[in-house]
Design a protein that fits this description.
With 90 residues, the chain is an alpha+beta fold. The chain has two helices and five strands.
Length: 90
């Protein structure tokens, strides 16, 4: 399954922490929060605010757009990739 990882990082160190994963199964998106996180609605709001693409009408394009849409100092989105190519576990 193709997905994008939403990752928190400290630019002054190598520490990275998975915040969430947005999966695409070919038809719909599924947001999974990392263990210990409970901000589902806030994460969806944040992701929607980072692109103009509507996730309901173009879910794959929405997911892929996050790579360029989320480029903050402490948070970034990975490029879309398969689970077998992922370095994070959820």
């Amino acid at each position: 399954m193709v997905h994008v990882d939403i990752v928190s990082h400290n630019p002054l160190s190598t520490h990275k922490e998975l915040l969430a994963r947005l999966n695409y199964d070919g038809q719909a998106l599924d947001l999974q929060l990392a263990e210990g996180r409970d901000n589902y609605d806030q994460m969806w709001d944040y992701l929607r605010s980072r692109t103009t693409i509507d996730p309901d009408t173009a879910p794959y394009d929405f997911m892929r757009s996050l790579y360029e849409g989320i480029d903050a100092t402490y948070v970034y989105a990975s490029e879309a990739h398969e689970a077998t190519d992922c370095s994070f576990n959820i």
